[in-house]
Design a protein that fits this description.
The chain is of the alpha/beta class and 220 residues long. It folds into 2 domains: 141 residues, 3-Layer(aba) Sandwich (Rossmann fold), CATH 3.40.50.1000; 67 residues, Putative phosphatase, domain 2 (DNA polymerase, domain 1, Orthogonal Bundle). It contains 9 helices and 6 strands. A 6-stranded parallel sheet has the order 3-2-1-4-5-6. It starts with a strand and ends with a helix. It binds 6-O-phosphono-beta-D-glucopyranose and magnesium ion. The site of magnesium ion has 9 residues, from loops. Magnesium ion binds next to loops.
């Protein structure tokens, strides 16, 4: 059987946490009197916590001192983690669990490639931490998506060449990272946001029945 490196982003791909990030950033922006739109939020997907706050401040044309910046980051994460507390297995996005089980049965290498520093506790909470053969998250990388470091590191840990990697992403930055690395990029979300992806599905449930098989023979 052909082996591929199956690399999953976390927020908005494996679990429905993208909405929590949005709410927490929106509240933070409004605490600084900054108007923050859904379109702007799209550009924060896949982007690190620090860079996200920098961008919100740039868009709002606001400057804050270093100490306030750090406080705001803590405030955002605390609010986010309160929402994460409510997560359980039903928040795993539709079709993801079955897809992972299917890959496991075929003994396909599976990795997580996420910008989040909260990735491990979230996967643990969902009861799927041990389904991943490798985890690369925001605590492991120095360069954020669209830099491909996170996905290249995942391939290294899986002992797989990067040209054999298939990346599942809901963010523009993540799709760009996969493309830069020469990996197959599969977008999960809306075509209008993810037009740079090799293919886009609204969810894992929308993939054709034999799609997992097709992926094994797919080349960039
Ligand atoms: C990404 C999310 O997965 O992780 C971003 O798409 C988020 O919205 C980033 O800012 C960092 O996450 P965390 O959990 O470390 O704040
Ligand atoms: Mg994401």
């Amino acid at each position: 059987m052909i082996k591929k490196a199956f690399i999953f982003d976390l927020d908005g791909v494996v679990v429905d946490t993208a909405k929590f990030h949005f709410v927490a950033w929106q509240n933070l922006a409004s605490s600084l009197d900054i108007n923050f739109t859904e379109e702007e939020n799209e550009q924060l997907k896949g982007v690190s916590r620090v860079r996200s706050l920098e961008k919100i401040l740039e868009w709002g044309n606001k400057k804050i001192d270093k100490e306030t910046f750090e406080q705001k980051l803590i405030q955002k994460n605390e609010e986010y983690l309160k929402m994460v507390e409510t997560l359980d297995q039903k928040d795993i996005l539709p079709g993801v669990y079955d897809f992972l089980i299917h890959l496991k049965k075929q003994d396909q290498p599976i990795a997580l490639g996420s910008a989040s520093k909260n990735a491990r506790p979230i996967l643990k909470k969902l009861g799927i931490l041990n389904m991943f053969d490798a985890i690369v998250d925001g605590t492991d990388v120095s360069k954020a998506k669209p830099d491909p470091e996170v996905f290249l590191n995942a391939c290294k840990l899986l002992n797989m060449p990067s040209e054999n990697a298939i990346v599942f992403e809901d963010s523009i930055a993540g799709i760009q990272a996969a493309n830069i690395a020469g990996m197959i990029s599969i977008g999960l979300g809306e075509e209008k946001n993810l037009s740079e992806a090799d293919e886009v599905f609204r969810s894992f449930l929308d993939m054709p029945a034999d799609y997992q098989h097709q992926l094994l023979n797919k080349t960039k």
